[in-house]
């Protein structure tokens, strides 16, 4: 599938793995794809910035985690849980261990598709559909962004929609950017 991806789109896929690792996440989700779009540059990064989306703010939101808010809503206080666990097992008992160092690029490359979560797989599939609907024979970062937004379940799309982005408005911005490039 990656043969249609532009160099920047491939960079997004690769960098998304690094973003997931940096956040201590085992699977690569749409949120990691969005963060990686900033690093790769191109139309997606320009559109995200034009919409007022900032990588640092998204990363901070993900690092804080939605889990804490969800647990608080059902009466579970994570600070109290952490304190109790540390009293029993010692300070730092819940700290994440460093992710294991992996081999070189070839090893990571062979494992890329195994780490994608269902939302990221769906967004990649949708990015192909978006590209075809636009009559493009490649998948660029702009198609990845639109694929993320079209996926209703993914965290990346949800975070973007919470910040005011819509698929239709993003499509307008992408088309305008493509006209400016041509």
TrEMBL record:
SUPFAM superfamilies in the cross-refs: Double Clp-N motif
Q: What is this protein called?
A: Clp R domain-containing protein
Establish whether keyword Coiled coil is in the entry.
no
Xref: InterPro entries: Clp_N_dom_sf, Clp_R_N, CLPT1/2
Q: Which UniProt keywords apply?
A: Repeat
Gene source species: Dactylosporangium siamense
What the entry lists under Pfam families is as follows: Clp_N
Q: What is the lineage of its organism?
A: Bacteria, Bacillati, Actinomycetota, Actinomycetes, Micromonosporales
Does the entry feature the keyword Hydrolase, yes or no? no
Q: Which residues form the Clp R domain?
A: 2-181
